[in-house]
Structures are given as structure tokens and as C-alpha cells.
Design brief:
5-stranded mixed beta barrel; 4 domains; globular; about 35% helix
Amino acid sequence: MKVSVFTLGCKTNLYESGQIVTALCDKGYQASQGLVWADVFVLNTCAVTGEAERKSRQAVERARKLNPLCKVVVVGCAAQKNAEQFARLGNVTFVKGVADKVAIVKEIERVGIGVEQLPTQMTESVFAAQERARAFVKIQDGCNNFCSYCIVPYLRGRSRSRRIADVVKEVAEARRAETVLIGIDVSQFGKDTGESLPQLFYALRGINTRLRLGSLEARVVTDELLTALAESNFCPHFHLSLQSGCDSVLRRMNRKYTTSEYYDAVCKIRKVFPQAAITTDIIVGFCGETEEEFAQTEAFVDKVRFADIHVFPYSPREGTVAYGWEDVDRETKLRRAERLGAIKERLKREFAQSFAGTTQRVLAERKRGGLWEGYTEHYLRVYFEGNAAVGEIVNVQIKEPFKDGAKGEIL
């Protein structure tokens, strides 16, 4: 029986889909990731926004178009939030939530709804199938932050961590030139087990792979962590979640830092890693955001000099604290997103220009239109010509800014 596992949403979902593929293959199914013809489709859904939830429902119709006689099994956050929205759709035979997604291998022939209580401890029993140039390894799940705009803690549960020994074993077995350590809030890693991120990086030093971290909170950027990163094979790229560059907006968001504390973390990073890429997420038009508050965000973005920014217009989410609060009109949100997007593009180009004339180690990920594409240790996207292989790290001389990154050539 052929099974297609299709992922919507975050890198953690992508990792968990890899776990599902491994478990299915171990049981004799012909399973792979991606939306291709299959007898059974496992849809790993997302509910971070209303749009993500809508796309999750649309994926059922996309599966039916590929095979009108297929069975569709739905798992993940959108199913956890509202299982009935999928159960009533044609071809959907079983709906499961977030808990123990790998168990779907035993439930794939079941009919009905099986949304279970959210777990309180990590129970990872299967390593994910790694189908890309870099490996993704999940080290943590859940979130304790309860930001006023976010529904994730209600769907993923409280923060819980894997044991360091288990993480080290999976990283070693993945055998990739680069490994990304991911989770819903990796800043919380080890707080429930008595371990820590610095201990994890010291434990990973003996493995021949360069390491990246998922999104971090500024408050965990300590001298202890930076020392551990500097003494490991860490790629100097920090995705520091910001959301707003205005303190009054941050308070309404229930973000637990000020812009001053955030900037202190940036300065600490650049003292140890002078050329570090610092990237972030920013929500524009959050409840009641004024022009003055948005102008403070624009000024703060310029002050930090981000290497890249993911800009999101605020989208009210039913079930969150902020749902029903005063909203900003859509036109204003889009206008602010466009203004911040222009700053982002300028800063990205300046970041790329800062590496012109240097030689960087680039992970070759794919080749399109005669050019290889991949990322440097500083997460600068590079387009280059020359002989390489997928998953190989090559020395590339950076020439100039190009597209969304830079152009270079293999030395």
C-alpha cells in the first residue's frame, strides 16, 4: 500500500512527518513525504493562523483529486483544534490530534476520531526519515509562553524536552553535513529535565556536522550559552523572535522582554560572533497599534540591522487572549507590511554585500537553471556555478548581492 505524508506548517511538523514515514516503512508500507498519488494520504496539519487551517482543509480536496478512491487520515494542530471540520469531509476516514503522531501507523485502518489528551513528557520513539540536504532533529515540543495572539500552547501543550543522549544519537545517525535543532520553543530546552542548551552543544562536539538552532527567545542569550556555541560547530545564525520593536505593543502581546533587553542580547551575540546573522519575525498591525508605535518598530529594525525579517500582518485567532480586541484595519496592516518589507530588502542586500569578496562554506542543496543554491554558515543564500553534489559543503567566493542572497563561484 502506498502512503503519501503531506506536511503543512512548521519545521517541527516536517520532522514529525519524517517520523511517520519511518514508522510506516518499518511496517511494510511504501511511504514518502509529499503530495503524490497514493492509496492513503496522511495530512499533518497546521492551525497557527486561520489561513493555515483553511489550507489544511483544502489539502483533503487536493488528495481526492490525485486519487478519488483514496483514504485520508488527518493529524496535527488543526485536527487538535477542531476534529469535526475534517471528519465531515469526503474520503476522511480517521482524525487524530497532536499526541503521538507516530501511532498513526497502528491506526491507519481505523475509522472515526481519536484526538487524545496532550502529552506532558517527550515520548519520541522513532527517528525521522531525513529526505533533505540538511537534517532536522526535534529537541523540544510545546510552549509555556502564552503570548496573547498565539494559539500554539493550547494545541501543542506545555514545554517538554528530549534527553541529550537521545538527541546526540539521532544527530549521529542522521549523517548530514548540517543539522538543525528544532522545536516549538527551543529556548525552553532542558528546563523540565535538568539539562540545558549549553550542555547539549558540548555533547554534540564530537559529531562531524555543523549545527543550527531554531527560533530563540532573547532572554536565553547568556554568556554561558554563547561560550558553548563558540566552542562547538555552531553556525553563527540566530533567529531571535521579536514580534514588535515597541515596548507598549510587546506588553499587549504578553512578550516577556523589552526592546532594551532584546538589544542587549544582540550586542552580546555580536561580541562573540561579529558577523552573525540575526533574523526575526515581526507582526504588524497588532491590536491597537498606532502609527507612532509602528514607527518605533521601524527605527528598532534599523538599529538592530537584521539579516532577514519575516513580516506578518496580524491575524486575529479565535481561542487566543487577544481575540476580540480592537483590530487595525486591513489596509493599514498591508501598508505597514509593505513599509517594513522595503526596510527588510535593504538590510538583506546590505548583509549580502558585507560578504562580497570573502570565501564562504556553502551547503549545496539543489540545482536549478544551471545554478546551485545553498546557504553559508551565516545563512546567506548563495547562487553559484561549478561542480558540487547535494549535501556537500563547498568553498564559494561571494561576488555580489543577487536575488534574495548573493552570487558566487566555487573555488
